[in-house]
Amino acid sequence: MSVITCIEDLRIIARRRAPRMFYDYADSGSWTESTYRANEADLGRIKLRQRVAVDIERRSLATHMLGEPVAMPVAIAPTGLAGMQWADGELLAARAAAKFGIPFTLSTMSICSIEDVAAATDAPFWFQLYVMRDRGFVERLIDRAKAAGCSALMLTLDLQILGQRHKDLKNGLSTPPRPTLRNLVDLATKPRWCLGMLRTRRRSFGNIVGHVPGVESLDSLAEWTHAQFDPRLGWGDVEWIKRRWGGKLILKGIMDPADARHAADSGADALVVSNHGGRQLDGAPSSIEALPAIAEAVGSRIEVWMDGGIRSGQDVLKAVASGARGTLIGRAFLYGLAAMGEAGVTKALELIRNELDLTMAFCGRTDIRGVDRTILMPPAGANGER
Q1: CATH number of the domain at 7-377, please?
Q2: What is the DSSP letter of 164?
Q3: pLDDT for the residue 181
Q4: How far is residue 302 CA from its own chain's centroid?
Q5: Which residue in 166, 226, 262, 276 is the catalytic one?
Q6: Residue 354 to residue 361: CA distance in whole angstroms
Q7: CA distances from 320 to 45, 72, 81, 121, 323 (A)
Q8: What is the DSSP letter of 131?
Q9: According to the model, what pLDDT value does residue 177 have?
Q10: Distance between CA atoms of residues 22 and 190, nearest Å
Q11: Buried b (16+ CB within 10 A) or exposed e, 294-329
Q12: Helix or strand or coil: residue 46?
């Protein structure tokens, strides 16, 4: 294997090792994918201010997210079907995150269940909640997260309806996946993945199958999930969930200052500036473009985090400098997971940490908690400067 120097190296390996339908599920956006591409491109356009002759010998990336100590301002984002990138993927990612000292977030639409992850790691993890029409199921999910010792609940607000992702339709990614000739041929070229899936019992949505009356198979699961995402979700539901949960609450999917103010008014502890990785509203601004105005709108009333497009430590630093107290990574860790399992997730985190540390030093800073907009160059043409 060649030397792995960046997240892009992991992506290339992941594309080779994961079945096409699951790789494309992670590595795609909705419609024309313009917002998906903008998340990365807009981060790349931000320029950093290099400083010299500054004592940078002792540096620290340690900070807090929701009052929890973290090794760097990064958490693993909730991603559906992570257990289809690599067998037992959520368990492996949770272990890697715990060893590294950052939070892991389990998706409602995970393959491994809340109970599976709780049994696999001693570190508290976060649980991400989708609001379903079946409010009884939502209540049971919240109660299961409490019983598992989850230290925060992350409520996703931007998936009341599902954006259209062309690659998923073309690949036959459904519940259950369609066994097309193309998919079967592709699986035949992925013996390592197939062997891993044969060795695990976790091949369906572990948080749902067996926990909803009448949903005991992939076919019945497909019928249930198709009708369950609730387009009626409103701020009243946020208040209800906060009362039911009773712990720290994160609101994910905020892209507008007005919604950010609603989030702060709701009493939530953190919000995530996120366009769902470009997988929902195509044509929306990038997360990094939306971040500064949202951070300004809420000030210190609520922690502001960002996800979308982060593929390096430099991206993390740019987000922090633009107003985020923390960041979430989705695809970056999924590439590592699909490439090499737990070792790949660890490698992705190491790459991000090392680049964050070096870049912060080049900018003349030694403590991530003191990074602000002054490390960024003004946009070209602003005030006559570059």
Answers
A1: 3.20.20.70
A2: P
A3: 84
A4: 19
A5: 276
A6: 11
A7: 16, 11, 29, 29, 5
A8: P
A9: 64
A10: 12
A11: bbebbeeebbbbbbbbbbbbbbbbbbbbbbbbbbbb
A12: coil
SS3 378: coil
Nearest to 260 by CA among 232, 289, 301: 301
Q: Which residues does residue 229 pair with via DSSP β-bridges, in sequence order?
A: 132
Q: One-letter amino acid identity for 304?
A: V
Using a 10 angstrom Cβ sphere, with 0-12 exposed, 13-18 middle and 19 or more buried, the burial of residue 44 is middle
Catalytic (active site) residue 276: yes
> Collapsing DSSP states into helix, strand and coil, what is residue 86?
coil
Contact 102, 80 (CB under 8 A): no
Task: Specify whether the CB–CB gap between 72 and 312 falls below 8 A.
Answer: no
The partner residues of 254 in beta bridges, in order of sequence, read 273
pLDDT value of position 386: 44
The residues of the chain scoring below 50 in pLDDT are 384-386
Helices 331-340 and 89-100: crossing angle, nearest 10°?
110
**Are the CB atoms for 319 and 63 separated by under 8 Å?**
no
Find out whether 95 and 342 touch, Cβ atoms under 8 Å.
yes
Contact yes or no for 280/166 (Cβ under 8 A): no
Q: What are phi and psi of 368, to 5 degrees?
A: -60, -25
Model confidence pLDDT, tens digit, residues 194-252 = 999 999 999 989 999 889 887 776 667 767 877 898 999 999 999 999 999 999 999 99
Q: Which of 293, 22, 319 is nearest to 172 (CA)?
A: 22
Tokens of 231: 């387009």
Distance of alpha carbon 253 from alpha carbon 275, whole angstroms? 6
Strands 63-65 and 68-70: antiparallel
Query: Could you give the CA distance from residue 164 to residue 31 in angstroms, rounded to a whole number?
Result: 6
CA distance 305 to 373: 15
Dist. CA 250–CA 68, nearest whole Å: 13
Q: Give the whole-angstrom CA distance, residue 25 versus residue 80.
A: 9
Retrieve residue 15's tokens: 């594309």
Q: Where are the domains of the chain?
A: 7-377
CA angle 194, 198, 200 (to 5 degrees): 120
Contact 21, 193 (CB under 8 A): no
Read out DSSP for 137-183? HHHHHHHHHHHTT-SEEEEE-S-SSPPP-HHHHHHT--SSPP--HHH
> Token digits for 252?
């994910």
Tokens describing residue 211: 């926990």
Q: Read off the DSSP letter of residue 73.
A: S
Nearest to 340 by CA among 159, 96, 55: 96
